[in-house]
Amino acid sequence: MAYLIGVDCGTSGTKTVLFDEYGKVISSATVEYPMYQPKNGYAEQEPADWANAMISTIKSVVAKSGVSRNDVKGIGISGQMHGLVLLDRENKVLRRSIIWCDQRTAAEVDEMNRIVGNDKLVDITANPALTGWTAAKILWVKNNEPEIYSKIAHILLPKDYLRFILTHEYATEVSDASGMQLLDVPNRCWSDEILRAFEIDKKWLGTVYESCAVTGKLTKAMADELGLCEGTIVVGGAGDNAAAAVGTGVVRDGRAFTTIGTSGVVFAHTSDIAIDKMGRVHTCCAAVPGSWHIMGVTQGAGLSLKWFRDQFCSSEKETAAYMDVDPYYLMDQQAAQVPVGSNRLLYLPYLMGERTPHLDPNARGVFFGLSAMHTKRDMLRAVMEGVAYSLRDCVEVFREMGISVFDMMACGGGGASKLWRSMLSDLYNCSVKTASSKEGPALGVAILAAVGAGIYNSVPEACDTIVGVDKIVEPVTENVPEYEKYYQLYRSIYPALKDSFQVLATL
């Protein structure tokens, strides 16, 4: 039996899982670490914390598994995207990493648009200039920390710093590099034109590989420390969402997944690149060679339900504690008693502005149609339906781009709700499934490692063997046209309020 290691370097912690070649979990371990916010809108982490967490968790899963080191055939790494790791010539980290959710770079985004222009950025990098992405952070360091900038010898992404620790190789792969805004996404290579425009030395960047390619091998020192064999392969791995796609089997055209976490993501696979010129969705290279993925984001998905729970569901929380169940379980039961359309009550989930399809930081949450007849139960269902409508908005953008979806997986905390999955199934008018494994990104990069080690011939072939389905929800025939009426009304509300949102932001 062969075994693979999947390392998932997240924002709150790093989780490492040891799998057998069929995707069965043998052992796992997690280590958490802090995020630093020195100023409002800043978000930073220490790369050393990621490295220590990776080393600790790999040692743990190997030691407690009882698996022979000779049978561990490969390592894959998933990571939070867009983070900036700067090394000097001695490979010392020059400053804390500026991570994905940092928002300090508004001036640099303007600079990027001034130097290159929005249209060319979209044509080459497949996305408009974005504050959270890596290129803007590099320019921020150049503009604000010139002494540090002058010492740069290497620029890495978070998971690629971990790769360097394991292999001493400077490398990245296409899915994560797509989020730097330095990659020519259609051609899957660094863009010389963009690098010249921003005066970024190409030698600072690692070699770009496909996600399942071997990028290096464990050094003797690391192998000895981890309890593994020198020369164990380390593959490209993937950014977190691209890794989750592999871990849920979203590796062929027509397949997609919906994640309902704090924010909501709809992620679709495509073998033909498609770019939205309006920048409503992101296009990146997929972890499957020669393919891409499209990703829409709604800001206030699970956040909306958490907000409603914390503000209005104290009795449900108390009852849930007494029954030893999750409050969301009781909230689901309450919402299920309300008919489709929440008795003519609609909710816009724009508590934190919106990304897809509106790109409007000033948009705000709305209950539309509220009357004296409505109860808390109606409002609760309206919140869940409003989030589902916003996720349908993402699918509508995909359809405009010629990307069809007929097979949908559900992930994240909200994906555990059968009622929410049913709403999505009715609105997407397709089956909505959950994966039998809950390991997502860690499983995804372990699958990539299995392909790199030659255990499987391709990523889709590996997923066919490893990724299973747990639950399936089918659309309810009579609900589909009923939801369509409410969804079309939902779509008309934001345009009617757009100007008012802008006025509200100035008051």
Main traits of this protein?
507 residues; alpha/beta; Nucleotidyltransferase, domain 5; 2 domains; seven-stranded mixed sheet; 24 strands
Written overview of the protein:
There is one protein chain. This protein folds into two domains: 3-242, ATPase, nucleotide binding domain (Nucleotidyltransferase, domain 5); 249-434 and 472-501, ATPase, nucleotide binding domain (Nucleotidyltransferase, domain 5, 2-Layer Sandwich). It has 18 helices and 24 strands. Strand 10 and strand 11 (189-190) form a beta hairpin. Helix 12 packs across helix 13 (327-335) and helix 14 crosses helix 15 (418-428). The protein is globular.
Broad structural category:
alpha/beta
Mean pLDDT: 96
Question: How is the CATH topology of the largest domain named?
Answer: Nucleotidyltransferase, domain 5
CATH C-level label of the largest domain: Alpha Beta
- Give the strand tally: 24
- Major sheet summary line: 7 strands, mixed
Give the end-to-end Cα distance, rounded to a whole number of Å.
Answer: 65 Å
- CATH H-level homologous superfamily name of the largest domain: ATPase, nucleotide binding domain
CATH architecture of the largest domain: 2-Layer Sandwich
Shape: globular
What's the topology here?
Blueprint: E1 3-9, E2 13-20, E3 25-32, E4 44-45, H1 47-65, E5 72-79, E6 85-87, E7 97-98, H2 106-115, H3 118-125, H4 134-144, H5 146-149, E8 154-156, H6 158-167, E9 171-173, H7 174-177, E10 183-184, E11 189-190, H8 192-198, E12 207-209, E13 214-217, H9 220-226, E14 233-235, E15 238-239, H10 240-247, E16 255-260, E17 264-270, E18 282-285, E19 292-298, H11 301-312, H12 314-323, H13 327-335, E20 346-348, E21 366-368, H14 376-400, E22 407-411, H15 418-428, E23 432-435, H16 441-452, H17 459-466, E24 469-473, H18 479-506
Parallel strand pairs: 1-5, 5-14, 5-15, 9-12, 16-22, 22-23
Antiparallel strand pairs: 1-2, 2-3, 4-7, 6-8, 10-11, 13-14, 16-17, 17-19, 18-19, 20-21, 23-24
Helix pairs in contact: 1-6, 2-4, 10-16, 11-12, 11-14, 12-13, 13-14, 14-15, 16-17
